[in-house]
Structures are given as structure tokens and as C-alpha cells.
Amino acid sequence: MIAEEYKREKYVPDTSISENQTTLLIMELMKITVSSFKNYIALNYHIKQNLNEPDWTQTYLQQATKLIRHFGYPFNMDKEYQDIYDGSEGFSDLYFYTNGEYESNKSIFSIECKRLPAPPPKSREKEYVKGDNNNGGIERYKTEKHGKGLNKCGLLGFVEKENFNHWNETINKWIEDLGKADKSWNDDEILSNVETNTDFCVLKSIAHRKNNGDINLTHLWISIN
Hints:
The longest helix is centred in the N-terminal third of the chain and has 25 residues, at 19-43. A hairpin with an 8-residue loop joins β1 (75-82) and β2. 30% of the residues lie in helices and 24% in strands. Mean pLDDT is 88; it is low at 1-6 and 11-15. The protein has helices spanning 19-43, 53-71, 137-142, 164-181, and strands at 75-82, 91-98, 109-116, 152-159, 192-196, 200-207, 215-223.
């Protein structure tokens, strides 16, 4: 668990902060939320076996929004983003937007959530990367079903079986195999681990898009097994 999260000073909003600073604050929030999320699940262990992907996502969101209020982060977080600004076709599972009174509610960082492993049937096995009907996690960003108009987004993985190293190796193998069979994929899109502890793992990758350049992806995986 992360023992220090509630020692953080309240954030004093600064409308002049850069996009990079905002992204760092988003990732800070996402990481400190892990402890609250896992503590909540531990206290309500009787519900754990019945939760699906939307349930995990909702539980994580609820804990994150409490911390946003507690620390006064300069953004809000919500679910099921319909992009009326840049025209992304899909609904992002989670998204952040600025909290200025008259500022746009446009997503500044969108997140796709996935279970690891994917639920049955077996045809969904590689859904974190690529799926049927353009619904793979990384695939959604490559095709701009999510994240159109953004150059930084993320994925949130709920690891129900195996460990972080297993999924890093497995997902990278899927990407490398796709790079050999599909010219729209490349093996430089593999995930690189940047931080790991008992509760969560942070990885980075890029996804090549056809029309608007690369998008940088941050992956946060939470161990819930």
C-alpha cells in the first residue's frame, strides 16, 4: 500500500500550469488512488468476486474523485466521455477535464479500462491490445476511437490473475506478433516498465496513428488478485 498519500499538501490551483505538469498531477492522483481503491475492496471483500470491468472502473472513480476534492486538484474526473469537441467515435471509460467555472469540459486525458486477463470468450484474449470491431484497448487510441485531439492518454488495467511481469511480456509479444502480420502495428509500440511495487505497475508506450502522429500512453496496472 501507499502509506504517504494523505500527507500530501492541498494543491493550490494555478491556471498557468503546463500540459506536462497537468499530466504529472493526473498520474500522481491515479497512483495515490490505488491505496484507497484497494483498501475499499479489502473492507468490502464480499463483493470482490462479483465485480466486472464497469464495476472495477466505477469503484476506482469513486475513490479518485474523493481524493480530487480532498487535495484540491485542478481538474475533475468522470466516466463515459462522449467527445463532442474532436469527434472521437467511442466513449472513453474515464476522462479528466479542467475545473474552471467557464472552461470547456473537453477531455484533457482519457483512459480506457481493461481486465487482465480479458473475460471469456477466448476471442477476447488479446483485447488489451486489439479486439473485434475496433475495441482493443491500445487499438482504440491508434484508430482515434479514443483520444482524438490529444497526444497523451492512458489505460487502467485490473490484474486479476498472474503478475505484472507476466502481462508485460505477454502484451509485448502480442504487439510484436501484430507488427509482423499487420503493417499498421510496429514493435516499437511495446510497453516499457517505469515503476513497479506490490500494488501497482506503471508502464509507458507510444501508439502510431494514421492521421495525427503518435500518442503517448501511460499504463497503470493494479493488482487485485
